[in-house]
Amino acid sequence: MTAILATQTSNKPTTESNPEIPEIPEIPEIPEIIYPSSDGKPVAETYDHLYAILITLEVLRQYLTGQQATVLGNQFLYYSQGFPKLRIAPDVMVIFNVQPGGRDNYKIWEEGQVPAVIFEITSPGTKDQDLISKKDLYAQLEVKEYWLFDPKGQWITEKLQGYRLRGETYELITDNLSEPLQLRLAVEDKLIGFYRLDTGEKLLIPSELATALEEETLARQSAEAQAENERQRAETERQRAENERQRAETERQRAENERQRAATERQQREEIEAQLARYRQQFGELPE
């Protein structure tokens, strides 16, 4: 501020040649922090591992459709702003109270919500991390439930193991019930089966859903065909009844015409007989 005032009173030019004007140092640009969405590593080690991830992802995505929730699979979860190397990629994670839909990655400080449930489909290369370091990290992040699934049944004690956060540590889930999801989980061959707690209904996997939709379509088409046949039968019966009514009406009309014809003939005969009677009365019997 002193230098600026001195410049104004002395009217000296503000050039680099004037030693009384200090140079303002340039402020270095802060480089943008990049949070990658991929590290180029494969998603899964085996087909069974990949299949279990994709099915779990799709089943839960369908289940939570219409809710303020998202289900992400094998995408980076960033948990420390400004430190892009502090990240992890859960096989499947469910987050509530966020906008539905996919993301390239998930930053906790931007979304304001920690995943409520995380699934790791364990494999030979990940089992140690799944059982120790990831479990510890998810507890620190306060992930409510952590589930491990071994599709081959070779790498952990139970094919399906769930942990529920109590305080700062995880406790083993013994009833296979997920409180955040309101689902019961079960081992079904190389997949996790999901059942609604309110109805007991199973959440269908895509192939089962396609079969169910096909069966529903066939049943609907059959019902529609049956209804159409019934409609046609009813229409035929209605037409038959209408024809019978018209036949009866025709018969009634014929009988009425016959009655009227007979009445006319009787009237004519009576008139002729009356005329003959008057004639006889006036002129006597008709000559033979």
From TrEMBL:
Residues 228-272 have a biased composition (Basic and acidic residues). This is Uma2 family endonuclease. Residues 1-18 have a biased composition (Polar residues). Residues 51-184 form the Putative restriction endonuclease domain. Residues 1-23, 220-273 are annotated as: Disordered. InterPro entries: Nuclease_put_TT1808 (IPR012296), Restrct_endonuc-II-like (IPR011335), Uma2 (IPR008538). The keyword Transferase does not apply. One of its GO terms (molecular function) is endonuclease activity. Keywords: Endonuclease, Hydrolase, Nuclease. The keyword Hydrolase applies. It holds the Pfam family Uma2.
